[in-house]
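Researcher: Dear colleague, please comment on this protein.
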Amino acid sequence: MLLQYPFWFHNTAENLRRLKQTLDAFGDYPLVIEVRHSSWVVPEFFHSLHEHRAGFCNVDQPLIGRSVKPGEQVTSAIGYVRLHGHRYDTWFSDDADLPSYERYNYLYSEQELDPWVKRIRHVAEVAETTFVVANNHFEAKGVVNASQLIQMLSGER
């Protein structure tokens, strides 16, 4: 179960309490936590996830302000990578006329995927099970990037 928290969900005492309640309430399920604000990228948070057997979602997103930077953290048996793309122009847009799918309208180049291949390999070495998720988009850009990653990781088409 992936629990996503938005950029504005900062590491505060109240949000930490909420997160702990959620981890306790859903502790019987395999959990992965996706946070997008860098205030969460501290050893105490990773230790707490490990104690709750919850995975950390290594996220790729536009790096704006205090966004979580790409990483290769593993805090449970589940390794998780999520590729959102780099649409800086739409990521925090509040344009009501902009369709929501435009935020994820992004096709990674092989050069952009290459560092993720190294990170994914590291995550897979540490975790029992590793998931790599590319955002869905009606033009199948996530499918294209997933196919590229499979080829880059396995050396096979």
Q: What stands out?
A: The mean pLDDT is 91. The helical segments are 13-25, 43-51, 110-126, 141-154. The domain at 2-154 is CATH 3.20.20.410 (TIM Barrel). Residues 51 and 127 are 15 Å apart (CA to CA).
